[in-house]
């Protein structure tokens, strides 16, 4: 008998907040979720809720779920892909948006490539890309920097360094922050950046409460916006 084909790893995007999945996700996501029974997720409760919303007829007891978060032992990760070696597909689901981008799913994808397992990225919302699209900043040269340091002095130094890089390279600089620190980060940008530097704040992307605004740092000094506990992307360009 010939060797059975390997399963694939599907990167399954989710919504960016409380909105119906089919408002922002294509039917291909629904079909994939209906077909796949093995999943690697950050949070089992929210992953099951997402699966139930997009594929309500799918049997929850049939799901085999592995957790991938900061508590996961790295030595366990290769075994998460054992179903693929047995010909079964595996889905990776992020807490929000696209797996593998600012997301621990990237570690599993790397292992999949090492094992020559096919990786299939599916279409869905990426808050990072959508914020850049709507910012009016350079979409041909940009850098995603993730989180800035928490220490006040280190944060200020990093912001100034990246502002210089932005000016030298004509490059948009993209950041995320823990939602309860959003207001503080906006204040730090306004206090540290040159008044002529453009700053975009994009929050609640794809949701009814979505707000996306780009203006100079000087104008942000006179703008009131409540970002507390709202998922946000920050972008600046000098």
TrEMBL record:
InterPro entries: 4pyrrol_Mease, 4pyrrol_Methylase_sf, 4pyrrole_Mease_sub1, 4pyrrole_Mease_sub2, rRNA_ssu_MeTfrase_I. Keywords: Cytoplasm, Methyltransferase, rRNA processing, S-adenosyl-L-methionine, Transferase. It comes from the Bacteria. Residues 82-216 form the Tetrapyrrole methylase domain. GO terms for molecular function: methyltransferase activity. GO terms for biological process: methylation; rRNA processing. Pfam families: TP_methylase. PANTHER family: RIBOSOMAL RNA SMALL SUBUNIT METHYLTRANSFERASE I, SAM-DEPENDENT METHYLTRANSFERASE. This is Putative methyltransferase. It comes from Zhouia amylolytica AD3. The lineage of its organism: Bacteria, Pseudomonadati, Bacteroidota, Flavobacteriia, Flavobacteriales.
């Amino acid at each position: 008998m010939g060797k059975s084909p390997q399963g694939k790893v599907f990167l399954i995007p989710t919504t960016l907040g409380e909105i119906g999945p089919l408002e922002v996700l294509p039917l291909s996501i629904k079909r994939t979720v209906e077909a796949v029974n093995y999943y690697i997720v950050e949070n089992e409760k929210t992953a099951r809720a997402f699966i139930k919303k997009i594929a309500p007829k799918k049997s929850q007891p049939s799901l085999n779920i592995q957790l991938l978060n900061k508590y996961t032992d790295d030595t366990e990760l290769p075994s998460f892909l054992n179903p693929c070696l047995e010909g079964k597909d595996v889905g990776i689901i992020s807490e929000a948006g696209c797996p593998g981008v600012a997301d621990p799913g990237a570690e599993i994808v790397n292992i999949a490539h090492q094992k020559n397992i096919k990786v299939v990225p599916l279409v869905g919302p990426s808050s990072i890309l959508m914020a850049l699209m709507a910012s009016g900043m350079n979409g041909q040269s940009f850098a995603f920097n993730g989180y800035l340091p928490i220490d006040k002095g280190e944060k200020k130094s990093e912001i100034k360094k990246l502002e210089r890089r932005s000016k030298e390279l004509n490059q948009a600089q993209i950041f995320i922050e823990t939602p309860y620190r959003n207001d503080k980060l906006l204040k730090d940008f306004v206090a540290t950046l040159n008044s002529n530097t453009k700053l975009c704040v994009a929050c609640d992307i794809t949701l009814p409460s979505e707000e996306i605004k780009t203006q100079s740092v000087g104008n942000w000094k006179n703008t009131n916006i409540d970002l507390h506990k709202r998922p946000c992307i920050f972008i600046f360009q000098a």
